[in-house]
Write the structure tokens for this entry.
Amino acid sequence: ALKAAKKAMDAVKTDVQMTEEETVRGVALDRTSVVLDRKGTITLKASVSPDTALNQKVNWSSSNTKVASVDQKGKVTAGEEGTAVITVTTEDGKKTASCSITVTYTGGWKQNSRGWWYRYSDGTWPADC
């Protein structure tokens, strides 16, 4: 009986052990860089560690919303051509991770009866054409 009681007591976690398991130690993203085409989207996934942390909530932000905007679910939407950094920050501990987003407009030259025109890969034309 004494042996069983000792085993049960050893299994009880101290306040320090509980706090270490409940506190956020870091956050990571599934990608560190992404290239998006015109109007492209991607959803980044954040992993808070440890997975036993009580507060798993994160906030998302963009360094340049004209190039790439992000919603609070991690969905990134391409805007203007350029580069932006998407950052995820944990509510608990303010740990961060980031992903560089490069937006490029790809397409090709097309010929019709009026001449040559540049058309984006999504089928649209530049505004001045």
